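Researcher: I've got a protein sequence and the SMILES for adenosine-5'-triphosphate. Could you write out the 3D structure of the bound complex as C-alpha cells? I'd like something to compare against our soaking experiments later this week.
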Amino acid sequence: MSYIEVIHETKRYKTGDTVIAANNDVNFTVERGELAVILGASGAGKSTMLNILGGMDTCSEGQVIIDGHDIAQYSAKERVTYRRHDVGFVFQFYNLVPSLTARENVELASQIVQDSADPTETLISVGLGKRLDSFPAQLSGGEQQRVAIARAVAKNPKILLCDEPTGALDYNTGKQVLRILQDMSRVHGATVVIVTHNAAIAPIADRVIHMHDARVQRIEENANPTDIDDIEW
Ligand SMILES: Nc1ncnc2c1ncn2[C@@H]1O[C@H](COP(=O)(O)OP(=O)(O)OP(=O)(O)O)[C@@H](O)[C@H]1O
Ligand SMILES: [Mg+2]
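Model: Sure. Here is the predicted complex with adenosine-5'-triphosphate in place.
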C-alpha cells in the first residue's frame, strides 16, 4: 500500500448560492519516502489538496488514506493528533506567531514531538543563524518563509507538506531550501509533498502530479530525479 492514497477526493466550497469544486474527483498515490510535486496554475486546487492531506481541512467526498488510515473519516480530535505528531506543514503565507522570535517559533513546533531536531541547528541550516532572536515583523518575506520551513522540518515529521516553499526566495536560497526538503525524504525517510506553480522545480521530484482546473491531469514518475544543482529558473 502506498503511503498516501487519494481516492475520488472532491472538495466543494459554498459561497452564498454558488458551489465551487476546488478538487474534483482527485486520484493519486505517493510512496513512502518519496518527494512528490503537485504542479499547477493559480486556482488549480493545490492548496486545497495540501490542506486536506495535512488534516487542516476535510474533503466533501472520497478517501484520503495516509499510512493505512483514512483521515477523511477522522474526528476533529483525531485530526489534531495526526497534525501534531505526523505532519510538518509549510503554509503558503507562513503563519508565524508574531509575538515569538524565529527560534521560539521553531521551538513551539519541536517541543510537541519527541524526536525533534535542534531548533537552532535547523535555523542555521536554512541560513538564519544570525536571525535567531528576530521577530517575524523584523524579517523579510524570504526569511519568514525559511523560519516556516525550519519550523516544519524541526519536527522531523513523517509527512512534510510544503505550499510554495520557494515562492518568496531568491534563486540560491530557493535551491538551499529545496536541498533541505529533498534531504528530508532521502536522508530522513519523510514523505514530502511540495505544491508549486513553478515547473522548473518538477524535475527534482520522484513523482509529479499535474493539477488543472480542480483535477489531476496527469502523473509522471521520475526514475532519475535531476540534481538540485542542475535545475534553473
Ligand atoms: N475557503 C474557500 N472558499 C471558497 N472558495 C475557495 C476557498 N478556498 C479556495 N477556494 C477556491 O478553490 C479554488 C482552488 O483554490 P486553491 O487555493 O486550492 O488554489 P491553488 O492551486 O492553491 O492556487 P494558488 O497557486 O493561487 O495558491 C479557487 O477557485 C479558489 O477560489
Ligand atoms: Mg495555493
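Model: The CA atoms of residues 17 and 221 lie 40 Å apart. The mean pLDDT is 95.
Researcher: Great, I'll pass this along to the crystallography team.
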